[in-house]
Amino acid sequence: MIAIIDYQMGNLRSVQKGFEKVGAQAMITSDANQIAEADKVVLPGVGAFEDAISELRRRALVDVIQDSISQGKPFLGICLGLQMLFDRSYEGGTHAGLGIIPGEVVRFDLPAEYKVPHMGWNQAKFCQPSRLLTGINEGTYFYFVHSYYVVPEARDVIAIESEYGQPFCAMIQRDNLFATQFHPEKSQQAGLRLLQNFAQL
């Protein structure tokens, strides 16, 4: 069973429907015990970094997230769920993240012709092999909606880069931990294949 963490911020049902389309069982839950007992864990997210981190802490979900990752359980962060894995974000001030991946979250600083938030389809440049990318071609388009992006301290965690006025990190991986800036659940067949690959880990 895949646990999709519910902290009232994120398109939870569309993530769950994405997994259901590829034949995987996924439950939406804010129960730390259910998350701890799940085979795999997904941390989705849409909204403001500070509010999301505060809500995870208020619901006492930080420990089970950290434990799931440290125990080697397959873990997938999506959009804000990627950003919260990092040390800090500069969205609306400076806010501490979960500190699982060294690095920070910064706002796009681009020429006027580039609208922020970055919204729409962008190509993937593969930076290293990943089990989540099995059956997905280099140059595939994924769907993004974000004003901030992650800057890992070490480039060796970057699995995909994309470009919007500048290159930026679009997916990371480290051992059992995977996270995407794009929304696989909104990225049609390629996104569904990524979810299927995760479900089959």
Oligomerization category of the chains in this entry = single chain
CATH class label: Alpha Beta
How many discrete domains?
Answer: 1
CATH architecture: 3-Layer(aba) Sandwich
Give the percentage of residues in beta strands: 25-35%
Shape: globular
Radius of gyration: 15 Å
Largest sheet: 8 strands, mixed
Which structural class matches the secondary elements?
alpha/beta
Query: Could you give me the name of the CATH homologous superfamily?
Result: Class I glutamine amidotransferase (GATase) domain
Helix count equals: 6
> Total number of β-strand segments?
14
Kindly, what is the distance between the CA atoms of the first and last residues, rounded to a whole number of angstroms? 12 Å
Instruction: Return the average pLDDT rounded to an integer.
Output: 97
- Spatially, the strands of the biggest sheet line up as 2-1-3-4-14-13-12-9
Keywords:
25% helix, eight-stranded mixed beta sheet, alpha/beta, Rossmann fold, four-stranded mixed beta sheet
